[in-house]
Design goal:
This is AsmA domain-containing protein. This protein is mainly β. The chain contains 4 helices and 35 strands. It has a 35-stranded mixed beta sheet that branches.
Length: about 550
């Protein structure tokens, strides 16, 4: 029995010596290389480390230096100068679930293709790490990351685990192409629901702070978000800039504040923007709100050829639509002011009061095409319940028929300018007058126009103007049917007889000043020329009592 006892004792001593030898060999480069090679050959992972360090002063911690870890045939999941693993009594029942894992000075690449990883920890700590999360839809990249994830239990499709608390900060962080610095993130993940209780970062030379929640279906709830002093330049058009908002199932905004922002793209810009948005949900290309509000003001807004100075917008949102409490801006030298309501039912915009004062505007070369183009689906009709204009200058530099109206004044009531998404004069009454005007190089003074419109006809009850020596007066009707039949009756007294020649009528065989009487019809259609549709009769007499009568058929004078 003594011999057996001594044999067991010597075996234990030998085993202890082997363990001690193996322990010390692991802490050498040779031992680290051999263990790394064995793990790589006998598992589905590639593992290398230069040395293992263990100190009896901290017996529950094992330190690995210059570690590289990843799946076979995949880019490395982890590259770190040091990995400190904290052990606990849990290793007796679950060897690969440790107490802590501390990663220092390296890069951690977490993607669904790398999960599940073979180990987990009650706490994953990061110290001066780079962090990448490809293939997750987040396009996340961060450097100089410090923080913790607790617990960390990676599994297939969830590189951070189904339920964990994270608290990290990063010297620089790029999310979906947006670079930030000094980012601070704290929140929880609970079965696909990501709750960011605290979010802050420096972005585009400004700052961002707030809290939000991402639901399991990909929708977002932003309880509070504040952007200060943003200075952002983008290579995207305005539509593309906001396109990411339409890629999420829904975005619910509790409160969004933007203070002193400057944003710029290839065909748009806004400076000194202050904006406040409350209780707004964006979903499937539309929006919903029961008690929302949008207020904004800026020094300048540019979109294509549209250039607004000092725009102010104040609107209240509801299930019915938008109550436009105030919109004012300076545009092309004028002051524009209006208020009204946009109704969701019917996509109709009604402006209770609108005015334009001091406009100096040259129409764009394609204004006629813009007039014929259909408007967006959300703007089916536009009605001005009350409209006033004063001291306006409008110019068209079309070389075929240039014109200019100076000191244009006007008023209108219940004037419907858009119907079925098309511009026109579809209803209401309007009166316009000006100090002077030029139509294809023919100058007139004090021109005026009065009209009333309904669903079938635009009735122009008065067109009047003074020439240098005489007066022009006319009436007209324009059909609202697709043929756009026009009837004109003109009476001119003491005017140059070549006046109508500049406006399209052939030259008369008599000259001088005199009287003109014209009746004509035609069809004004966008896709067909006017001249072949014109039929009419002109009578003229000059001061010498010379007379002529001409009849036009199909745009040509009958011989």
């Amino acid at each position: 029995m003594k011999f057996i006892g001594k044999l067991i004792l010597w075996l234990l001593v030998a085993l202890l010596l082997v363990i001690l030898a193996f322990y010390f060999l692991l802490q050498t480069r040779w031992g680290a290389r051999e263990v790394s090679q064995w793990l790589t050959e006998n598992t589905d992972y590639q593992v290398t480390f230069d040395a293992m360090d263990h100190r009896f002063s901290s017996p529950s911690h094992i330190l690995f230096r210059n570690v590289t870890f990843g799946r076979d045939g995949k880019p490395a999941t982890l590259v770190a100068k040091a990995v400190d693993i904290g052990l606990s009594t849990r290793q007796v029942t679950d060897p690969l679930h440790v107490d802590t894992i501390l990663l220092q000075d390296g890069t951690l690449n977490l993607s669904p293709s790398n999960a599940p990883l073979p180990f987990a920890a009650d706490r994953l700590q990061l110290n001066n790490m780079a962090f990448n999360s490809p293939e997750t839809g987040w396009e996340l990249s961060a450097q100089r990351v410090n923080g913790s994830i607790a617990p960390w239990t990676p599994e297939a499709g969830n590189v951070l685990g189904k339920k964990t608390h994270l608290q990290v900060n990063a010297g620089s962080l790029t999310l979906n192409g947006v670079p930030t610095s000094n980012a601070v993130i704290e929140g929880d993940i609970d079965n696909g629901i990501v709750t960011l209780t605290s979010l802050g970062a420096e972005v585009a030379r400004g700052s961002l702070a707030g809290n939000a929640r991402r639901n399991a279906d990909g929708s977002w709830v932003v309880d509070n978000l504040r952007l200060n002093d943003i200075r952002l330049q983008s290579d995207k058009t305005l539509i593309d800039f906001f396109a990411p908002l339409s890629t999420v199932p829904s975005l619910q905004i509790g409160r969004l504040e933007v203070v002193d922002a400057r944003l710029q793209g290839p065909d748009w810009a806004v400076t000194d923007l202050d904006m406040n948005v409350r209780n707004l949900t964006l979903s499937q290309g539309g929006w919903q709100s029961t008690d929302g509000r949008i207020t904004l003001n800026a020094s300048e807004f540019i979109y294509g050829s549209l250039h607004l100075l000092d725009p102010i917008f104040n609107g209240e949102l509801s299930d019915q639509g938008i109550a436009l409490r105030q919109f004012t801006t300076r545009w092309e030298g004028s002051t524009v002011r209006t208020s009204g309501f946009w109704l969701r039912n019917g996509q109709a915009l009604t402006l209770d009061d609108a005015s334009i004062v001091g406009l100096e505007y040259t129409l764009p070369n394609n204004w006629k095409q813009l007039w014929m183009d259909a408007l967006p689906e959300w703007l089916n009709s536009v009605t001005l319940k009350k409209f006033t204009a004063s001291r306006n200058l409008v110019i068209d530099i079309d070389p075929v028929f240039p014109w200019q109206i100076t000191a244009l004044e006007g008023s209108a009531t219940n004037l419907q300018l858009v119907k079925n998404r098309l511009w026109g004069v579809w209803g209401g009454n309007a009166q316009l007058n000006a100090a002077a005007a030029t139509f294809n190089r023919v100058d007139v003074n004090r021109p005026s126009l009065a009209l009333s419109a309904n669903a079938s006809t635009v009735n122009i009850s008065e067109i009047a103007a003074y020439t240098e020596k005489g007066m022009l007066k006319a009436t007209a009707t324009v059909s609202q049917l697709p043929q756009r039949q026009v009837n004109v009756s003109l009476d001119a007294r003491g005017v140059p007889l070549n006046t109508l020649q500049a406006w399209g009528w052939p030259a008369l065989p008599i000259s001088g000043d005199g009287n003109l009487q014209l009746t004509a019809t035609g069809a004004v259609q966008a896709d067909a020329p006017l001249k072949p549709t014109v039929n009419g009769q002109l009578s003229a007499v000059n001061m010498a009592k010379e007379q002529v009568t001409q009849t036009m058929r199909g745009g040509e004078i009958a011989r």
